């Protein structure tokens, strides 16, 4: 099957349905996540599948579904995508728009579960129950942008994470939310079994950077594969989390010229 052209220096997302959505549909859904990050995350889901990691995924802060639809298209048959949101901003009709966007772009009710509520008030057993009793292989956190809310979302995601799972954090290093990094560093200090797997660089100030986290015991296994998969998107210097080092994936991999 031919893969649609999804833009300059974007990696293949590993799924024809994701590529088609990114090429002709992504921009039609209201949202702020970048196409570059969506392509990377879809390919990471494919990497998990190739490494024998299967199961449901979740997005905290689904909004109108732009990023959620890309993730859902990257799932294998029988896998479930959970969309969690308070669905009240900017108006209550946002939930209807989310459902309509999913339907329009081919994500059917049997493939997804829509959960209207505050993830920060959920217990791990609640979320796992929505996932049919299974832990999650991938959680994208794009909820309320406060330290307290992010800390709660991280705790929930970690408690529900399956072996080989990944947690993706949106709007990292965004100038509008400078204190989120405080919550992330506190979390990493308190959870040494979790490490950054990579940073997905910003596309614009709106399409901000994401951090991808994984279990420490999976880091080398995933990184070895990613060095080949994303060879054209790797920024040479990487990210130093003192002392942990991880990849930076970017559309612009140039280094500053020193004259």
TrEMBL record:
Which Pfam families does this UniProt record tie to the protein? Methyltransf_24 (PF13578)
Keyword Metal-binding listed? The answer is: no
Q: Name one GO biological process term.
A: methylation
InterPro entries to which the protein is assigned, alphabetical: SAM-dependent_MTases_sf (IPR029063)
SUPFAM superfamilies linked to this entry:
S-adenosyl-L-methionine-dependent methyltransferases (SSF53335)
Q: Name one GO molecular function term.
A: methyltransferase activity
Keywords, sorted A to Z: Methyltransferase, Transferase
Transmembrane stretches, by residue range? none
**Source species, domain of life:** Bacteria
Q: What is this protein called?
A: Methyltransferase domain-containing protein
Species of the source: Bosea lathyri
